[in-house]
Amino acid sequence: MTDGLPADVHAGSDLLIGVDVGGTKTLALLVATGGPDGQGPLVVDRELGPSGAGDPSVVDGIASAVRALAARAADRGATVAGVGVGLAGFVDPSGIVRSAPNAPGLVDQDVRTRLRSELGVPVVVDNDANCMAVAAHAVIAPDSRHLVAVTFGTGIGGGLVVDGRLVHGAIGFAGEPGHMVVDPDGPLCPCGQRGCWERYASGAGLAWLARRAAEDGRAPSLAAAVGDPALLRGEHVTALVAEGDPGAGAVFDEYAGWVALGLANLIVLLDPQVVVLGGGLIATAAELLPRVEEHLARRFPAATRFRDVRLVASPGGPEAGALGAALLVAAEIWS
Amino acid sequence: MTDGLPADVHAGSDLLIGVDVGGTKTLALLVATGGPDGQGPLVVDRELGPSGAGDPSVVDGIASAVRALAARAADRGATVAGVGVGLAGFVDPSGIVRSAPNAPGLVDQDVRTRLRSELGVPVVVDNDANCMAVAAHAVIAPDSRHLVAVTFGTGIGGGLVVDGRLVHGAIGFAGEPGHMVVDPDGPLCPCGQRGCWERYASGAGLAWLARRAAEDGRAPSLAAAVGDPALLRGEHVTALVAEGDPGAGAVFDEYAGWVALGLANLIVLLDPQVVVLGGGLIATAAELLPRVEEHLARRFPAATRFRDVRLVASPGGPEAGALGAALLVAAEIWS
Fold this sequence. Notes:
homodimer, alpha/beta, five-stranded mixed β-sheet, 39% helix, globular
């Protein structure tokens, strides 16, 4: 794999490793910042490790993926200057993981200090949507001082760049847009609130909208696709949308309306130049973004009047989180 | 009025002037920053001018109030180092006023440049809720790096302090929480959206909740207070609440629930240490804040779990905006 190292990653180069601890796998990337012509960060090697789900030894898994990459870099005479780790959840300012739905074994652990002492280099641990925001800022919008990143997966995550800097908030929990209440009489969220944005605009929300439409007889093809509407998932909707099914299209448009509503709220609050959409749902960006833009233009004038906000799909696809984690530790070391 | 100058405002002192352009009057304050024992900014003189409502000559009104204060300062041998102006509305980064509901004559004018050339000192023009946020940050929470200020008046305004700095956003329109959509099937807002927070949680929102309760027979004393429910205003509710009227109390509690909902959304997004509530409605802080805190604790766990957010009424009362405007220009001159 070290054949992938470009010519400018010379002996002594300081490389970075970014890790994304996911629900199904852990991805570690070896990253050169800058690149040959200063064209932004370059991924020069990658390593997959086990997921963090339910495994208290996930820190060992992260460390072994990092060591494998570092060893291959060392074979080429390059060294690793730092390690960034991104995960779904929240990390407080002292480095303690406070919540980690994909890696419950990390909760209440000081992952930063443990990895730093195991690996002997600076380590940063942060929320995965924060990492995605950093990657998007570096790769597609380095000139924008205000950027909002939102991940649409099973849940919704968020990362805010304000005046060019990532926002962590008082206790490291800033950027939790999934729990904005957008309908106080809406369905109960596991968080205990009613009508959180995440109930409508996450992958779980898309499935819920599909089930409701199937049960109401509004989407017969969706009902037929699985037999029992209770089994409907977001993928059933997006698959039928790709085939041009009108019932699924209507559900997907309703979903896009909920996505637009939450983005409009973020826009009136934070006045960004760029909104980056990432996460699993954004595989459907070609279908989703035009619908979201149409809802924004038609229904949310307070968010669009005077403004010219760019809506873009996250660059780097599934690697954006790990790439951003590498850039975060680069910023900590070299800023 | 110069008798109010304290001993430490000596000859040559650099004082600042802060102006709040309101719907009913323009208030200008002469402000000494720091004060005798470094106890924060001190208001040493004040001057009232005409309101900006509908008057294209409001810039002249601001300039004459500023000149009156500057002349009285000069009598004591002190000079004015800069002028800050706060107004409801938005100012773009080039200094052009883009919207100003209380002073429509200012729209599309470069108020900063005009005042600077008329007065010969640095001038800053900003949103009034931004000014309130700056004043609150300086006076009650200088150690907090993350603060959200919300003004509850006819409408709702907002000011965000993130990592110790006021947030303006890409085009100067950050912090417009009144137009967060909190109920997509709610009443139409003049902005063109449905169910904006401002429809429920502003003074106009309180009046609307009161009318609805009176029409539904839920608040007979409110209906009786004015004869025609269409005439109900927020003041009718707060007056009856002060008398312990249960129907008005229920309406006010419903109102507090809407206030809490929007604050909860701001908290999950920005993770502040302090939320400052200002504006006309906050004359009722003693009645309102405990109700808002109760709703937050009971209905919005995502906003309260792990966190310890202080809810406080804006310091300085009706002078907070002008005081903050003075501090804003101080920061521009001396930072």
